[in-house]
Amino acid sequence: MNEKPEKLIDKKGCRLDGRKADELRPLKLEVGVLANADGSAYIEHGKNKILAAVFGPREMHPKHLSLPDRMVIRCRYHMAPFSVQERKSPAPSRREVELSKVIRESLEPSLFVELYPRTGIDLFIEVLQADGGTRCASITAASLAIADAGIPMRDLVAACAAGKVDDTVVVDLFDLEDKLGVADVPLALMPNLNAVTLLQMDGILTPEEFEQAVNMAMEGCKKIYAMQKDALKTKYMAIKEEVEEE
Ligand code: ADP
Is residue 80 part of a domain? Predict the structure, then answer.
């Protein structure tokens, strides 16, 4: 779709991909997909396809980066050259450096970093296909990968954006809505603790619209949280069946 559509929401309140304002894109989550990482997860969130891999907690290399009283979290968010329509340079862009930081900071509150002094975890996020909202989908997958690695955590982190397209506040914007819409509010939540770990805003909203967007994004996070727990259960049920067969 290269031409700018006149309206992003039709008279019936349907969005360009057929969703209602409060509807999430289809989601698929899978845990333990990589044999060589300590923990891993794969997410398909709409057309986004993202892999997350975790190593650690382990000794830091280089050693001088370790801290005497806590674990260090390193995070690399990377978009594959083939993940967007125009080939993206494989070198890290400013945006990827920023998103790596944002994702790390949204996951850190869920971890007991003080329990693992002088160690570090490495978090690798590979975006294979991007279609808007990759930071949120990355956080959702990375938190699952951390759980898969067996790293103790206060809660899973689920992330979802809401925003405004035309005159309507909608949840979970896809690429075109992100680019042509009025505002975008990505949010990450530890749903069991009801604690927000990421809140950003790009664009302009009235205070009422902002509140509506935050509430919608939080509802989205809660739905995603249920799917995260199901994905973890699915992995362990498969292991249970294997053990019982033996
Ligand atoms: P997020 O993916 O978290 O929404 P942005 O708002 O920065 O982050 O990006 C929105 C979308 O723009 C991305 O999901 C992706 O589909 C697209 N995009 C990002 N970088 C590029 C790029 N270098 N080339 C083409 N499209 C891109």
Answer: yes
